[in-house]
Amino acid sequence: MRIAVDGPSGSGKSTVSRMVAGRLGLTHIDTGAVYRALAHKAIREGVDAADGAAVSRMLGETKVLLKVAGGRQELSVDGVRVGGEIRAHEVSAAAADISGHREVRARVVEAARAAAADGGVVMDGRDIGTVVLADAELKVFLTASVGERARRRYAELAEKGGSVTLAGVAADIEDRDRKDATREDSPLRRAEDAVLVDSTAMGPDEVAELIVRLAGEKAGMG
C-alpha cells in the first residue's frame, strides 16, 4: 500500500507518517527533507533561495540521492548524508522559497517517485496525493489551526535551543501557508479523494491510529 499524507507546515505530517509506517511495517518517506536539504545547501553556499536563476545554477551542480534501504529513508546531498541540521528554523524559512521553483519541484518529484516505486510507503509532503503519488491507495490531508501549529513548532524549536518567539513562529507559518497555497507549480491543496483530518485537538498517537484504521479499511476493500 502507498499512503499519501499532505498538509500545511506544522501539522505533524512527518511525525504521524513515521508512526503509521512503523505500525504498518511500511517505509516512511519525508519529501520535505529534500527541500530542506537543498535549502541548507543554499544557505551554506550563500545562494538566495528566492532567486530562481541562482537556485537553478546550484541545482545543476547538486547530486541528490533519495533511496529506501533496510526499510528506512536515506537522503544524501553531494555524497553527504543529511541529518538534523536541516531542521533549523532558518532552513525552514529558506525551504519555503526554494520549494516554489518549478525546476526544484521536478527534481524532488522524480526522486520521490523513484524511492516509492516498489510501494509499501507512507510518504508525506504538500503535493503527494495531488502530484507525486496521485494514484495512492490512501490519501490523507492533515491540518490544524495556525495557533496550534505554531505552538507545536515553537515547542520543538525551543527544545532544541532555538532563539524564537511564538509570535514569530506563527508569522512564519502563515507566510509559508500563503506561499504553499499560491505558488504556480503544485500548490498545496487537498486531493478530491483525500480524507480530511483536523488534528487541532488530537495527539500524534490518535492521528496515527486513525490513519492505520483507514488503511485497514482500504485494504479490506481490496
General form: globular
The number of helical runs is: 9
Cα-to-Cα separation, first versus last residue: 11 Å
**Total E-strand runs:** 8
Order of helices and strands: EHEHHEEEHHEHEHHEH
Unreliable stretches (pLDDT < 50, length at least 5) are: none
Mean pLDDT: 93
Largest sheet: 5 strands, parallel
Strand content is 15-25%
Quick recap of the structure?
The chain has helices at 13-24, 32-44, 52-60, 89-98, 102-115, 128-132, 146-159, 166-182, 204-221; strands spanning 2-6, 27-30, 64-69, 72-77, 80-81, 121-125, 138-143, 195-198. The chain has 222 residues and is of the alpha/beta class.
Explain this structure to me?
The chain has 222 residues and is α/β, with parallel strands linked by helices. The protein contains nine helices and eight strands. Strands 2-6-1-7-8 form a five-stranded parallel sheet. Helix 1 packs across helix 9, helix 2 crosses helix 4 and helix 7 packs across helix 8. It starts with a strand and ends with a helix. The model has no long low-confidence stretch (mean pLDDT 93).
Strand and helix map with partners:
Blueprint: E1 2-6, H1 13-24, E2 27-30, H2 32-44, H3 52-60, E3 64-69, E4 72-77, E5 80-81, H4 89-98, H5 102-115, E6 121-125, H6 128-132, E7 138-143, H7 146-159, H8 166-182, E8 195-198, H9 204-221
Parallel strand pairs: 1-6, 1-7, 2-6, 7-8
Antiparallel strand pairs: 3-4, 4-5
Helix pairs in contact: 1-9, 2-4, 7-8
List keywords for this structure.
222 residues, five-stranded parallel sheet, 50% helix, globular
